[in-house]
Design goal:
The complex is a heterodimer of chains A (about 900) and B (about 120). Chain A is of the alpha+beta class. Chain A has four domains: about 50 residues, no CATH class; about 220 residues, no CATH class; about 300 residues, no CATH class; about 200 residues, no CATH class. Chain A is built from 26 helices and 24 strands. In chain A, α11 packs parallel to α14, α16 packs antiparallel against α22 and α22 crosses α23. The longest helix of chain A has about 40 residues. Chain A is globular and about 105 Å long. Chain B has a single domain, classed as Arc Repressor Mutant, subunit A (Orthogonal Bundle), CATH 1.10.10.10. In chain B, α1 packs across α3 and α2 crosses α3. Chain B is an alpha+beta fold. Chain B is built from five helices and two strands; from the N terminus they run αααββαα. The chains are: A alpha+beta (about 900), B alpha+beta (about 120). The interface between A and B is medium-sized, with 24 and 23 residues. Chain B: InterPro entries: Tscrpt_reg_PadR_N (IPR005149), WH-like_DNA-bd_sf (IPR036388), WH_DNA-bd_sf (IPR036390).
Chain lengths: ~900, ~120
């Protein structure tokens, strides 16, 4: 009858040595007594509690780690230095590999920390949420970042747990005039007056409670204040905000921090604008501050009631059906609440404040950072153990002279720490050097200062220490295990026993490298694909003139003038554009069929265009005819997707009715006059949705199809025409550039991926280079004998390469499915995507093989060419 | 010598050591206390109390003989020192004096604190 041995061993190990005998004795005796009295099962249960009762400071042993003598430390570092100097190649490979690894890691840490830091600086970030509109209509998921303008006030009114709500109402871009200067401002918003109390954006001038109360008052960011008023105090001064009239500046706030999900720089009071007041109309960004202790889930649970109370009547009004019928049809509308801190990384909402980040890239790059670091650590382990022949004698002598194994381990660990910290110094320099390029790659603005802020220095040092210990632990364990008799007696074949482990590590390195190469190829192919895919319109040679509404009634004369210029083919009202800034229309439509029965309303995107739109953008007409100058105002063009959606066989002549805003006069009856070929009016993440083209003029932008060899001159002429009519700023862009800008985050990811793949491959190759060097050294005699016996150079090279190539081969086999799975997951986000073909993986593998071969050949060819006399002479 | 030098549990353990007279060691004391009080008493608690008592000089200890029940390990046997004895006497005197002051009527009250 024995007490549980695991627990006994545990307490025996933890207990102070001088108490061990009596404590273990006590436990044992009591266990036996209990077992005899109450049975073994109960005794075992009690034993556990008894063991716990001994876990107290008076019983547990003091930490047995004693600080070694400083002299010992000095010796360790001396030896470390000598070793580094003696084996310069090895030291260089180790340090540079680790430095590059650490530098990549630091850069990625900067990126990840920045992405994760979004909106965490708000004092109330933990109870601040954004209200979103979610649901589905006719089987289409709807996720909109805004909520109806009445939603905010209703929440405060109806739910005691809601402390405050802030709405941010957008009215598009403004031409802001001060005296005779006019600037175009895109980042203008109209927030509720409590904006500066809820969001932690400090007000430098003005009272947060009152700055935005009165109509036509305005708060500027510092940068804006300087732009318009220089060093003068802007408070009390006025600016003309487009057609909204004079605004008085009542305050100045700090610039919105970079890590915020919005970046407005002009804040007008919400009382200056007239908002659409329907719940179902597009609304305002609505932020909800909950009282402490009131959970967001409670608020979520209240939403069905809120929808019944406020949205139900509007559904009746717009769609002439009750909420009950609406829901029975499978349609759904509700409100969601997302933590303000989650907006940046988990935003896939329509009409968001700005392009947000993507959590998947944060995970992806965190993973890459870890892998690169692992690859660099593996180098260190491999090279240190491969070099063990050199160190074996030293270990033997030290042991003979009385070193404990723990002391030897401490010595090897301190060596690895010296190497890692040297690498860290270089890594920090590399980061400083690479930061501008990295900023370009990521589209962010990091500064070196970030590395010295807050807990970063401590974190970096601790991290480096851990990496040093992790990388050094295996070599320390391995090298200190040599038996002195064995290593001193003869040139024992050390470094062989651990070859298996080393091979595993090399394989891991190449798995990482091959996967990253394959990943990069796929990302690049996808980017190529979406940029070259037939998009249904001709994006080349289209010039978009911005903000043509500024021309007012001179717009038509400007248009005529531009269209008369040589080199201009067509000019059209281009408020709606398939890429870049565009107006945005969505409306409900109902097919007007013969039987006049209630049919499902479809929610479809709408464009308002004129008769020159199709030729300007090169969109093909499939059936019917284009709009005519003085044609039917109720004629519409639809795309193929819309035809499919309505289920028409012959679309031309079919009639649909708009749902409108509920009033009978807003329900227009429209007739299809033509069908256009599907074109990508949204990015490739979405499949092409139904689109309705309404006939009309939209004065927001103007699109010009040009055919000219001298664009600069043409632009000058156009600008001159503009300048004669208005003093508003002249702005333009090219459609193909706007199109490419749609995939900026993918391009950033692709380039980052490419850079880090190259780095991973380089570090792996450094390691391989070092390993090959050692192999060649160890096999010098063998090679000499083989050559004497007639081996060819090619034969020797093959012999030396074979072993490594086998590892690379295994790595390819392991990496292929991993890369295939990973890249497919990434591609899922695109409605239009390339497939991951086998040749991509084969190409990645081939690249790895070629790179590995080249790396090894530096050593193997030299060995094969060397004169056997030299290697055989010494004996 | 302050009264606070002796915790309640320590006092009980010290009494047990005195009562068991040179056969006292942690397991025996724990078992004894369990029997007397009806509560479970963990070995570790008794062990810790004995350690403290020894530090304060109320008991002294020596390693005894090894027994089979202990897996061949020796036990630590405790005896009360003169100081410990004096401490026990004093604690007892304080208690006795207080007991004397309780009048019989009060005692009757406790016997049935909630009549009916």
């Amino acid at each position: 009858m024995m007490p549980p041995s695991l627990l006994t061993r545990l307490i025996g190990w933890l207990c102070a040595p001088d108490l061990r005998e009596e404590v273990l004795g006590d436990l044992h005796e009591r266990f036996v007594l209990r077992a005899r009295r109450e049975g073994e099962a109960r005794a075992r249960r009690r034993y556990w509690r008894d063991v716990m009762s001994f876990m107290r400071p008076s019983v547990l042993g003091r930490p047995r780690l004693r600080m070694p003598d400083p002299a010992m430390f000095r010796n360790y570092f001396l030896i470390a230095r000598r070793n580094l100097l003696r084996q310069k190649t090895l030291a260089a490979i180790n340090i540079s590999g680790l430095a590059v690894g650490l530098a990549s890691c630091l850069l990625i840490v900067l990126f990840v920390l920045h992405e994760e830091s979004y909106d965490r600086y708000h004092a109330n970030a933990d109870r601040l949420f954004r209200m979103t509109t979610e649901g589905s209509i006719a089987g289409k998921e709807i996720r909109i970042a805004t909520a109806g303008t009445q939603a905010g006030p209703a929440l405060v009114r109806d739910y005691a747990g809601v402390e405050a709500t802030v709405r941010l109402y957008r009215e598009g871009t403004f031409h802001v005039r001060k005296d005779h200067q006019v600037f175009k401002e895109e980042r203008v918003v109209f927030p509720d007056s409590n904006f500066f109390q809820v969001f932690s954006i400090p007000l430098l001038k003005g009272d947060p409670k009152t700055v935005l109360v009165r109509p036509n008052t305005l708060v500027l960011t510092e940068t804006m204040a300087r732009k318009y008023f220089g060093e003068q105090d802007p408070v009390g001064k006025t600016l003309t905000m487009g057609t909204r009239g004079l605004f008085e500046v009542t305050g100045v706030c700090a610039d919105v921090p970079l890590n915020t999900h919005f970046h407005y720089d002009m804040f007008g009071s919400i009382s200056s604008v007239k908002m659409r007041d329907k719940w179902l109309a597009s609304g305002a960004f609505t932020y909800v501050l909950l009282r402490k202790g009131y959970s967001v889930d409670r608020l979520r649970a209240e939403m069905p009631g809120l929808v019944r109370k406020y949205v139900g009547p509007e559904i009746q009004e717009f769609l002439s059906m009750s909420l009950h019928d609406f829901e029975k049809k499978g349609d759904r509308i509700t409100f969601g609440f997302q933590p303000v801190t989650a907006i940046h990384l988990h935003a896939d909402f329509e009409e968001d404040t700005e392009a947000q980040g993507d959590a998947r890239y944060v995970y992806l790059f965190s993973g890459i950072a870890l892998f690169i670091l692992a690859v660099a650590c593996i180098n260190f382990m491999n090279l240190s153990t491969a070099a063990s022949t050199e160190r074996a004698r030293e270990v033997g002598i030290r042991k003979v002279l009385g070193s404990f194994r723990s002391q030897l381990m401490a010595q090897f660990l301190s060596e690895s720490l010296v190497v890692t910290f040297l690498a860290l110094f270089i890594a920090v320099d590399l980061v400083v050097l690479a930061l501008p390029a990295f900023n370009e790659l990521t589209g962010k603005q990091f500064t070196v200062g970030v590395l010295t802020e807050g807990w970063m220095p401590a974190g970096i040092l601790t991290g480096t220490l851990l990496i040093g210990l992790a990388a050094g632990s295996y070599p320390a364990f391995f090298l200190s295990s040599f038996r002195p008799a064995g290593v001193l007696k003869a040139a024992a074949a050390t470094g062989k026993g651990n070859r298996g482990f080393r091979n595993v590590l090399v394989t891991i390195q190449f798995v990482v490298s091959v996967s990253m190469i394959a990943g990069t190829i796929v990302v690049y192919r996808q980017l190529q694909y979406i940029q070259n895919k037939k998009i249904g319109f001709d994006k080349e040679q289209v010039l978009v003139l911005h903000d043509t509404y500024a021309l007012g009634d001179k717009r038509e004369s400007f248009r005529q003038e531009v269209s008369r210029l040589s080199g201009v083919e067509y000019v059209t009202a281009g408020g709606y554009m398939p890429a870049g800034l565009s107006n945005n229309g969505t409306d409900g439509f109902r097919a007007e069929d013969e039987e006049q029965r209630q049919s499902v309303p479809y929610r479809m995107k709408t464009y308002t265009v004129d008769e020159d739109y199709l030729p300007t953008l090169g969109i093909q007409l499939l059936a019917g005819q284009n709009f005519k100058t003085r044609g039917n105002p109720d004629g519409i063009l639809v795309n193929e997707a819309a035809v499919r959606e309505f289920g028409w066989k012959n679309a031309v002549g079919k009639r649909i009715r708009t749902v409108g805003d509920g009033t009978p006069e807003s329900r227009r009856l429209l007739t299809v006059v033509g069908v256009i070929r599907d074109f990508h009016f949204e990015d490739m993440h979405h499949s092409i949705r139904p689109l309705v083209l309404l006939f009309g003029q939209d004065n927001y932008q103007m699109a010009v199809r040009v055919r000219s060899n001298d664009l600069t001159a043409l632009l000058k002429q156009i600008e001159a025409g503009w300048k004669r009519r208005t003093d508003s700023p002249f702005g333009y862009s090219f459609l193909n550039q706007r199109f490419n800008a749609l995939y900026v985050s993918e391009q950033h990811a692709g380039r980052l991926m490419g850079v880090f793949a190259v780095l991973a491959v380089c570090i792996s190759c450094l390691g391989l280079f070092g390993l090959a060097m050692f192999t060649v050294q160890q096999r010098r005699k063998e090679i000499g004998i083989r050559k004497v016996l007639g081996a060819s150079v090619a034969g020797v090279v093959a012999l030396l390469s074979k072993e490594f190539l086998k590892l690379v081969g295994i790595a390819i086999l392991i990496a292929s499915p991993l890369a295939w799975y990973g890249t497919n997951r990434w591609l899922e986000a695109f409605a239009y995507r390339v497939s991951v073909d086998w040749w991509v993986l084969a190409l990645a593998g081939l690249l790895a093989v070629v790179i590995a071969l080249i790396t090894i050949s530096f050593q193997s060819v030299r060995a094969a060419l060397s004169n056997p006399v030299q290697s055989l002479r010494s004996e | 010598m302050r009264r606070s030098d002796l915790g309640e549990f320590e006092e009980v353990v010290l009494l047990a050591v005195a009562a068991m007279d040179s056969r006292a060691y942690s397991v025996a004391i724990a078992e004894e206390l369990e029997k007397e009080t009806g509560q479970t008493v963990s070995t570790g608690a008794v062990h810790a109390a004995l350690q403290r008592l020894e530090q304060k000089g109320f008991v002294r200890s020596a390693l005894g003989e090894a027994t089979a029940e202990r897996g061949g390990r020796r036990k630590r046997l405790f005896t009360v020192t003169t100081l410990g004895g004096r401490m026990l006497e004093e604690v007892r005197a304080v208690r006795n004096r207080l007991w004397e002051r309780i009048t019989p009527s009060v005692r009757l009250d406790w016997q049935d604190p909630f009549p009916g």
